[in-house]
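tool_call predict_complex ligand=S-adenosylmethionine
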Amino acid sequence: MAFMNVGLSTLGMDKMSRFKVLKPHIVAFIKHMTLKKINNFIRAEINRIFKRKVLNSYPYILKIESTNICNLKCGFCYNSRRTPRTGERAYGRMSFENFKKIVDEVGPYLFKINLYGFGEPLLFDETFDMVKYATQNNIGVGISSNMNINRPDLTQKIIDSGLEVLIFSCHGATQESYSRFMGKGSMNLALNNIKALIKEQRRLKLKTPLTDWQFCVTRFNEDEIPLAEKKAKEIGINQIRFLIPDLPEKAESEWFSNLFPKRSDVLKDAVGCSWVYRSAYINYDGGLLPCCRDTRLLTNDFGNVFRDGFMNIWNNQKYQGSRELIANPTQPIKCKIMCQKCPAAGFKER
Ligand SMILES: C[S@@+](CC[C@H](N)C(=O)[O-])C[C@H]1O[C@@H](n2cnc3c(N)ncnc32)[C@H](O)[C@@H]1O
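tool_result ok
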């Protein structure tokens, strides 16, 4: 696994949970492969293994945030939706036209787009157009949603879009624990939306979207794991995953479940970063980041894809600095980049 470096999101998980995270990616790889994509994939992985600074490959998976606006305020998420300060990204949404620009430039090399970040993608109609456009361009699309959406055509919209994976964020199996994590969200509304989707999928004999219940385990919902598993089975959700939430240090003693290793312990097994060779995170306003670690601070952006084009940023000074740091973590830092503080890559703040 270390050789493959499958990423921080699976650290600390048992083999089965890791497989559940990777399965949709493997499916996308097989379903959407072309000679061009495979050729690029091999180049990207060779670049990663040899820790090259300048890449002759494109990313093969992208995380694109259609919006950072959300209908809920989950515990500690995006600092629970506070007003942005000077120098921080405002709230907003990506236009369909801008999304198309990204797909038109990088799409021929992509197996997958994860079309979500810190907002709720199903709040806005353009998300469905984006999913459809990427799907028509032979790219598998996954989104993550709290499914707290009150519109009668939701099921139809999801199915018509061609969505491949729906991560269903539901961090509790009773309304009480759900509210503790997900604020004013309604578990019933979310579950009814999922039930309606699965019912329609079964009627139409559709295999997609794969429904993937993501349950962040805390001290307040850890007892509900068996109940959540039972509910998932009854409803017909394809898979349920229990994961360690990413919580600020000050919250760990109150919130952290003892069923899992502490995140700080898990990070000790991190084997450096693969994002800067394989992937990237694009904010709704085009701000390009190597990953989703700190998307608020505008000075973190490596560039703007709408202004500069993706490939003009991918090998720029910041990216080269980041890759140099990964190749040699002890070297002096030449330019200021967010990666130099990343514990996942094994760096301490300096
Ligand atoms: C911030 S949410 C935004 C997308 C969408 N609104 C949703 O709820 O799925 C993105 C992902 O982060 C996950 N998530 C939420 N809180 C988390 C936490 N404290 N640690 C790790 N993942 C978390 C959610 O389950 C979701 O898959």
